[in-house]
Amino acid sequence: MSIQFVVAAATVASTVASAASAAQASKQGQIAANVEAAQHTENARLARVKALQSEVQRRKDLELVTAQNEAEAAQRGGSAFASDSFAAIQRYNQRTVNDDIGNIRLFGMADAARSARAAQASQYEVGALKRSGRLSLAGSVFKLGTNASTYRNVFAKGNTTEVG
Q1: Which of its termini does the chain have fewer beta carbons within 10 Å around, N or C?
Q2: Model confidence over 122-137: pLDDT tens digits?
């Protein structure tokens, strides 16, 4: 067996191993980025649901306060709806709830948007990893070609030593 064959075989084996390792690392990175993107997408959905639940709870809280105020007015022997002070309190409570719900919606949308952007960034990472894997493979093939050319030039100068 000639040294040329041994060197060529070692070069091919090294290049194939390097390409396989890079491909595997790229694939694992893609899987991790896809899982991360799915988690961010789920977080965006949960942020919207949480905001909706907070809004519903805030409306229920207003209904409870209103019912308590009506009960207190009835206990005093009057009608809550005939009282100017009750109407003023009710308007104040309604404005406060509307402001709170606006804030809940705003923060819910901000959380959902942040998670959606993170999911999109993870998808970009998947694309980058795919390109990286292809470039690594191309680099390994180029390296193999370069090494083969180098060895051919070295051995063409008359070095035909036999091994084993």
Answers
A1: C
A2: 777 777 766 666 666 5
